[in-house]
Amino acid sequence: MSCLSxxxxxxxxxxxxxxxxxxxxxxxxxxxxxxxxxxxxxxWIWSFVLLGPACIGLMMYLLLxxxxxxxxxxxxxQLTDWNTPERGGRRSSFVRNWKVWKHxxxxxxxxxxxxxxxxxxxxxxxxxxxxxVFSIGAFASFSTEACGFMDLFPGVRSCLCxxxxxxxxxxxxxxxxxxxxxxxxxxxxAHLLSKSGQGNAVVIVIGGAAESLLSLPGVNTVVMKQRKxxxxxxxxxxxxxxPVYSYGENDMFRQVIFSEGSVGWxxxxxxxxxxxxxxxxxxxERWFWMPYHCPVTTVVGSPIPVPKRPFPTQEEVDHYxxxxxxxxxxxxxxxxxxxxxxxxxxxxxx
Length: 350
Prior knowledge:
Number of domains: 1
Order of helices and strands: EHHHHHHEEHHEHEHEHEHEEHEEHE
Family: Belongs to the diacylglycerol acyltransferase family.
Largest sheet: 7 strands, mixed
Helix content: 40-55%
Strand order of the largest sheet: 2-11-8-3-6-4-5
Membrane topology: Multi-pass membrane protein
Organism: Salmo trutta
Number of strands: 12
Strand content: 5-15%
Subcellular location: Endoplasmic reticulum membrane
GO molecular function: diacylglycerol O-acyltransferase activity
Low-confidence stretches: 1-27
Structural class: alpha/beta
Oligomer: single chain
Shape: globular
Mean pLDDT: 88
Number of helices: 14
Distance between the termini: 23 Å
Protein backbone atom coordinates (compact mmCIF):
# COMPACT_ATOMS: atom_id res chain seq x y z
CA MET A 1 0.00 0.00 0.00
CA SER A 2 1.38 3.39 -0.92
CA CYS A 3 2.00 5.90 1.82
CA LEU A 4 -0.22 8.56 0.31
CA SER A 5 -2.38 9.35 -2.66
CA UNK A 6 -3.48 12.60 -4.24
CA UNK A 7 -7.06 12.84 -5.47
CA UNK A 8 -7.04 14.57 -8.86
CA UNK A 9 -10.60 14.55 -10.07
CA UNK A 10 -11.58 17.97 -8.67
CA UNK A 11 -11.75 19.62 -12.07
CA UNK A 12 -14.08 17.01 -13.50
CA UNK A 13 -16.32 17.20 -10.45
CA UNK A 14 -16.42 20.96 -10.63
CA UNK A 15 -17.38 20.83 -14.28
CA UNK A 16 -20.32 18.60 -13.42
CA UNK A 17 -21.43 20.97 -10.66
CA UNK A 18 -23.01 23.70 -12.68
CA UNK A 19 -20.36 24.13 -15.35
CA UNK A 20 -22.66 26.14 -17.61
CA UNK A 21 -23.42 28.60 -14.85
CA UNK A 22 -19.74 29.07 -13.99
CA UNK A 23 -18.74 29.48 -17.63
CA UNK A 24 -21.41 32.12 -18.11
CA UNK A 25 -20.26 34.03 -15.06
CA UNK A 26 -16.64 33.98 -16.19
CA UNK A 27 -17.58 35.54 -19.51
CA UNK A 28 -19.35 38.38 -17.75
CA UNK A 29 -16.54 39.10 -15.28
CA UNK A 30 -13.99 41.77 -15.96
CA UNK A 31 -10.30 41.28 -15.27
CA UNK A 32 -10.64 43.67 -12.36
CA UNK A 33 -13.49 41.66 -10.85
CA UNK A 34 -11.56 38.40 -11.20
CA UNK A 35 -8.55 40.02 -9.54
CA UNK A 36 -10.66 41.20 -6.60
CA UNK A 37 -12.17 37.72 -6.20
CA UNK A 38 -8.75 36.04 -6.24
CA UNK A 39 -7.31 38.47 -3.70
CA UNK A 40 -10.38 38.13 -1.46
CA UNK A 41 -10.20 34.32 -1.45
CA UNK A 42 -6.47 34.39 -0.74
CA UNK A 43 -7.07 36.86 2.07
CA TRP A 44 -9.66 34.55 3.64
CA ILE A 45 -7.51 31.43 3.35
CA TRP A 46 -4.37 33.08 4.65
CA SER A 47 -6.27 34.67 7.54
CA PHE A 48 -7.72 31.25 8.39
CA VAL A 49 -4.26 29.66 8.42
CA LEU A 50 -1.92 32.42 9.58
CA LEU A 51 -3.86 35.22 11.26
CA GLY A 52 -3.81 33.52 14.67
CA PRO A 53 -0.03 32.91 14.71
CA ALA A 54 0.52 36.40 13.25
CA CYS A 55 -1.46 38.00 16.07
CA ILE A 56 0.54 36.08 18.69
CA GLY A 57 3.80 36.99 16.97
CA LEU A 58 2.87 40.67 16.77
CA MET A 59 2.03 40.88 20.46
CA MET A 60 5.25 39.08 21.44
CA TYR A 61 7.27 41.40 19.20
CA LEU A 62 5.68 44.54 20.66
CA LEU A 63 6.55 43.33 24.16
CA LEU A 64 10.23 43.57 23.18
CA UNK A 65 9.98 47.13 21.86
CA UNK A 66 9.31 50.57 23.33
CA UNK A 67 5.64 49.95 22.56
CA UNK A 68 5.42 47.23 25.24
CA UNK A 69 2.68 49.10 27.18
CA UNK A 70 0.24 48.49 24.32
CA UNK A 71 0.23 44.66 24.52
CA UNK A 72 0.35 44.82 28.33
CA UNK A 73 -2.76 47.01 28.40
CA UNK A 74 -4.44 44.76 25.87
CA UNK A 75 -3.70 41.61 27.89
CA UNK A 76 -5.09 43.30 31.01
CA UNK A 77 -8.25 44.22 29.13
CA GLN A 78 -8.52 40.73 27.61
CA LEU A 79 -8.53 39.23 31.09
CA THR A 80 -11.48 41.41 32.08
CA ASP A 81 -13.20 40.49 28.79
CA TRP A 82 -12.31 36.78 28.98
CA ASN A 83 -15.85 35.42 29.14
CA THR A 84 -17.40 37.64 26.46
CA PRO A 85 -17.09 35.02 23.68
CA GLU A 86 -19.17 32.58 25.75
CA ARG A 87 -21.76 35.28 26.46
CA GLY A 88 -22.84 35.86 22.89
CA GLY A 89 -19.68 37.56 21.64
CA ARG A 90 -19.53 40.98 20.03
CA ARG A 91 -20.82 40.71 16.46
CA SER A 92 -20.45 43.60 14.04
CA SER A 93 -22.83 44.18 11.14
CA PHE A 94 -20.08 46.29 9.56
CA VAL A 95 -17.65 43.35 9.44
CA ARG A 96 -20.33 40.86 8.38
CA ASN A 97 -21.17 43.08 5.41
CA TRP A 98 -17.63 43.66 4.16
CA LYS A 99 -17.45 43.73 0.38
CA VAL A 100 -14.66 41.14 0.48
CA TRP A 101 -17.17 38.45 1.47
CA LYS A 102 -19.21 39.08 -1.67
CA HIS A 103 -16.07 38.63 -3.78
CA UNK A 104 -15.43 35.30 -2.01
CA UNK A 105 -19.03 34.29 -2.76
CA UNK A 106 -18.72 35.18 -6.44
CA UNK A 107 -15.41 33.35 -6.89
CA UNK A 108 -16.97 29.88 -6.66
CA UNK A 109 -19.92 30.99 -6.83
CA UNK A 110 -21.84 30.29 -3.60
CA UNK A 111 -25.52 30.47 -2.78
CA UNK A 112 -27.76 29.79 0.20
CA UNK A 113 -31.02 27.91 -0.36
CA UNK A 114 -34.01 28.01 1.99
CA UNK A 115 -36.41 25.05 2.02
CA UNK A 116 -38.58 26.02 5.00
CA UNK A 117 -39.31 28.96 7.27
CA UNK A 118 -37.50 29.46 10.56
CA UNK A 119 -39.77 30.99 13.18
CA UNK A 120 -38.00 34.01 14.76
CA UNK A 121 -39.77 33.19 18.03
CA UNK A 122 -37.81 29.96 18.43
CA UNK A 123 -34.16 28.96 18.76
CA UNK A 124 -32.41 26.45 16.52
CA UNK A 125 -29.30 24.31 16.25
CA UNK A 126 -28.22 24.03 12.63
CA UNK A 127 -25.97 21.04 11.95
CA UNK A 128 -23.77 21.88 8.96
CA UNK A 129 -22.20 19.18 6.77
CA UNK A 130 -19.62 18.44 5.46
CA UNK A 131 -16.67 20.16 7.12
CA UNK A 132 -14.48 20.26 4.01
CA VAL A 133 -10.96 21.66 4.31
CA PHE A 134 -11.92 25.16 5.49
CA SER A 135 -15.74 25.13 5.90
CA ILE A 136 -15.87 28.09 3.55
CA GLY A 137 -19.52 27.44 2.71
CA ALA A 138 -20.54 27.53 6.37
CA PHE A 139 -18.52 30.69 7.03
CA ALA A 140 -19.83 32.58 3.99
CA SER A 141 -23.43 31.56 4.68
CA PHE A 142 -23.61 32.08 8.43
CA SER A 143 -20.75 34.39 9.52
CA THR A 144 -21.27 36.94 6.76
CA GLU A 145 -24.25 38.38 4.95
CA ALA A 146 -22.77 37.65 1.50
CA CYS A 147 -25.34 34.92 0.85
CA GLY A 148 -28.25 36.87 2.31
CA PHE A 149 -29.06 34.87 5.45
CA MET A 150 -30.96 37.71 7.13
CA ASP A 151 -32.97 38.35 3.97
CA LEU A 152 -33.94 34.68 3.68
CA PHE A 153 -34.67 34.28 7.39
CA PRO A 154 -35.83 37.65 8.75
CA GLY A 155 -35.65 37.96 12.50
CA VAL A 156 -33.20 35.06 12.87
CA ARG A 157 -29.53 35.59 13.86
CA SER A 158 -26.99 33.04 12.72
CA CYS A 159 -23.97 32.25 14.89
CA LEU A 160 -21.25 29.90 13.67
CA CYS A 161 -19.67 28.04 16.60
CA UNK A 162 -15.94 27.28 16.29
CA UNK A 163 -13.11 25.96 18.47
CA UNK A 164 -13.02 27.71 21.83
CA UNK A 165 -9.23 27.92 21.84
CA UNK A 166 -9.31 30.46 19.02
CA UNK A 167 -10.92 32.99 21.36
CA UNK A 168 -7.89 32.91 23.63
CA UNK A 169 -5.66 34.32 20.86
CA UNK A 170 -5.14 38.07 21.32
CA UNK A 171 -6.60 40.28 18.58
CA UNK A 172 -7.78 37.25 16.61
CA UNK A 173 -10.63 36.83 19.08
CA UNK A 174 -11.91 40.30 18.19
CA UNK A 175 -11.98 39.42 14.50
CA UNK A 176 -13.77 36.11 15.17
CA UNK A 177 -16.38 37.72 17.42
CA UNK A 178 -16.99 40.53 14.91
CA UNK A 179 -18.12 37.97 12.32
CA UNK A 180 -20.61 36.56 14.83
CA UNK A 181 -18.63 33.45 15.75
CA UNK A 182 -18.80 31.98 19.26
CA UNK A 183 -17.08 29.03 20.98
CA UNK A 184 -18.61 25.60 20.50
CA UNK A 185 -18.63 25.02 24.26
CA UNK A 186 -21.47 24.12 26.62
CA UNK A 187 -21.51 27.53 28.41
CA UNK A 188 -21.56 29.32 25.04
CA UNK A 189 -24.37 27.17 23.63
CA ALA A 190 -26.33 27.48 26.87
CA HIS A 191 -26.10 31.27 26.75
CA LEU A 192 -27.14 31.50 23.10
CA LEU A 193 -30.10 29.16 23.56
CA SER A 194 -31.40 30.43 26.90
CA LYS A 195 -30.14 33.95 27.69
CA SER A 196 -30.03 35.69 24.30
CA GLY A 197 -33.73 35.79 23.59
CA GLN A 198 -35.36 34.04 20.64
CA GLY A 199 -34.45 33.81 16.96
CA ASN A 200 -30.95 32.39 17.46
CA ALA A 201 -29.66 29.91 14.87
CA VAL A 202 -26.60 28.24 16.38
CA VAL A 203 -24.55 26.64 13.60
CA ILE A 204 -22.31 23.67 14.45
CA VAL A 205 -20.13 21.86 11.92
CA ILE A 206 -20.85 18.45 13.44
CA GLY A 207 -18.10 16.38 11.79
CA GLY A 208 -15.26 18.62 12.91
CA ALA A 209 -11.62 17.64 12.46
CA ALA A 210 -12.37 13.98 11.75
CA GLU A 211 -14.56 14.95 8.82
CA SER A 212 -12.01 17.33 7.34
CA LEU A 213 -9.69 14.38 6.69
CA LEU A 214 -12.46 12.77 4.60
CA SER A 215 -12.81 15.82 2.38
CA LEU A 216 -12.34 14.43 -1.13
CA PRO A 217 -13.72 15.56 -4.49
CA GLY A 218 -16.90 13.70 -5.37
CA VAL A 219 -17.14 12.12 -1.89
CA ASN A 220 -20.10 12.80 0.41
CA THR A 221 -19.16 11.32 3.79
CA VAL A 222 -20.24 12.85 7.09
CA VAL A 223 -19.08 11.90 10.59
CA MET A 224 -21.98 11.89 13.04
CA LYS A 225 -23.08 8.41 14.14
CA GLN A 226 -21.37 8.95 17.47
CA ARG A 227 -21.81 12.74 17.54
CA LYS A 228 -24.82 13.15 19.85
CA UNK A 229 -23.84 16.05 22.09
CA UNK A 230 -25.61 18.62 19.90
CA UNK A 231 -28.84 16.61 20.17
CA UNK A 232 -28.59 16.52 23.97
CA UNK A 233 -28.09 20.31 24.04
CA UNK A 234 -31.09 20.77 21.73
CA UNK A 235 -33.25 18.74 24.12
CA UNK A 236 -31.99 20.55 27.21
CA UNK A 237 -33.03 23.92 25.81
CA UNK A 238 -35.87 22.93 23.50
CA UNK A 239 -34.09 24.11 20.35
CA UNK A 240 -35.30 22.66 17.05
CA UNK A 241 -32.73 20.78 14.97
CA UNK A 242 -32.11 21.82 11.37
CA PRO A 243 -29.91 19.81 8.95
CA VAL A 244 -27.76 21.79 6.52
CA TYR A 245 -25.71 20.43 3.62
CA SER A 246 -23.13 22.33 1.54
CA TYR A 247 -22.88 20.71 -1.89
CA GLY A 248 -19.47 21.31 -3.43
CA GLU A 249 -17.65 21.95 -0.14
CA ASN A 250 -15.49 18.85 -0.61
CA ASP A 251 -14.60 19.74 -4.21
CA MET A 252 -12.59 22.91 -3.55
CA PHE A 253 -9.22 21.19 -3.09
CA ARG A 254 -7.36 17.96 -3.81
CA GLN A 255 -6.26 16.51 -0.51
CA VAL A 256 -3.22 14.37 0.15
CA ILE A 257 -4.46 11.20 1.86
CA PHE A 258 -2.05 9.28 4.07
CA SER A 259 -2.61 5.56 4.44
CA GLU A 260 -3.59 4.44 7.94
CA GLY A 261 -0.53 3.71 10.07
CA SER A 262 1.88 5.77 7.97
CA VAL A 263 4.10 8.47 9.50
CA GLY A 264 1.98 11.24 7.99
CA TRP A 265 -1.20 9.67 9.34
CA UNK A 266 0.30 9.33 12.83
CA UNK A 267 1.39 12.96 12.81
CA UNK A 268 -2.12 14.08 11.83
CA UNK A 269 -3.67 12.03 14.63
CA UNK A 270 -1.16 13.36 17.17
CA UNK A 271 -1.81 16.95 16.10
CA UNK A 272 -5.57 16.38 16.35
CA UNK A 273 -5.19 14.94 19.86
CA UNK A 274 -3.20 17.95 21.04
CA UNK A 275 -4.91 20.79 19.16
CA UNK A 276 -8.44 19.35 18.65
CA UNK A 277 -8.14 19.67 14.88
CA UNK A 278 -6.05 18.00 12.23
CA UNK A 279 -4.00 19.75 9.52
CA UNK A 280 -4.81 18.76 5.95
CA UNK A 281 -2.28 18.65 3.13
CA UNK A 282 -3.94 19.88 -0.04
CA UNK A 283 -3.41 21.66 -3.34
CA UNK A 284 -5.72 23.94 -5.26
CA GLU A 285 -6.29 25.05 -8.81
CA ARG A 286 -3.51 27.64 -8.97
CA TRP A 287 -0.54 28.53 -6.77
CA PHE A 288 -1.46 25.52 -4.59
CA TRP A 289 -3.71 27.73 -2.44
CA MET A 290 -6.44 28.83 -4.85
CA PRO A 291 -9.52 26.59 -4.55
CA TYR A 292 -11.24 25.26 -7.64
CA HIS A 293 -14.13 27.26 -9.08
CA CYS A 294 -16.70 24.78 -7.78
CA PRO A 295 -20.26 26.02 -7.24
CA VAL A 296 -21.11 25.67 -3.55
CA THR A 297 -24.79 25.46 -2.63
CA THR A 298 -25.67 25.44 1.07
CA VAL A 299 -29.18 24.07 1.58
CA VAL A 300 -30.97 24.71 4.88
CA GLY A 301 -33.47 21.94 5.62
CA SER A 302 -36.74 21.86 7.53
CA PRO A 303 -36.71 22.16 11.35
CA ILE A 304 -37.19 19.02 13.43
CA PRO A 305 -39.39 19.94 16.43
CA VAL A 306 -37.59 19.13 19.68
CA PRO A 307 -39.28 19.23 23.11
CA LYS A 308 -37.58 20.83 26.10
CA ARG A 309 -36.12 18.20 28.41
CA PRO A 310 -33.78 19.70 31.06
CA PHE A 311 -32.54 16.18 31.84
CA PRO A 312 -32.95 14.15 28.63
CA THR A 313 -32.64 10.38 28.78
CA GLN A 314 -30.29 8.46 26.50
CA GLU A 315 -33.33 7.00 24.74
CA GLU A 316 -34.58 10.50 23.92
CA VAL A 317 -31.16 11.55 22.66
CA ASP A 318 -30.91 8.45 20.46
CA HIS A 319 -34.44 8.99 19.11
CA TYR A 320 -33.87 12.57 17.98
CA UNK A 321 -30.39 11.75 16.75
CA UNK A 322 -31.95 9.10 14.52
CA UNK A 323 -34.58 11.56 13.28
CA UNK A 324 -31.81 14.04 12.47
CA UNK A 325 -29.81 11.51 10.44
CA UNK A 326 -32.93 10.51 8.51
CA UNK A 327 -33.72 14.16 7.81
CA UNK A 328 -30.17 14.87 6.67
CA UNK A 329 -30.20 11.89 4.27
CA UNK A 330 -33.57 12.99 2.90
CA UNK A 331 -32.32 16.55 2.40
CA UNK A 332 -29.24 15.31 0.55
CA UNK A 333 -31.22 13.06 -1.80
CA UNK A 334 -33.88 15.68 -2.54
CA UNK A 335 -31.40 18.36 -3.63
CA UNK A 336 -28.44 16.46 -5.05
CA UNK A 337 -29.79 16.52 -8.63
CA UNK A 338 -30.38 20.29 -8.62
CA UNK A 339 -26.86 20.74 -7.24
CA UNK A 340 -25.22 18.79 -10.07
CA UNK A 341 -24.88 15.34 -8.51
CA UNK A 342 -26.02 12.16 -10.25
CA UNK A 343 -28.31 9.51 -8.78
CA UNK A 344 -25.25 7.34 -8.10
CA UNK A 345 -24.04 9.78 -5.43
CA UNK A 346 -25.10 8.65 -1.97
CA UNK A 347 -24.63 10.18 1.44
CA UNK A 348 -22.42 8.04 3.66
CA UNK A 349 -22.84 8.52 7.40
CA UNK A 350 -20.07 7.14 9.62
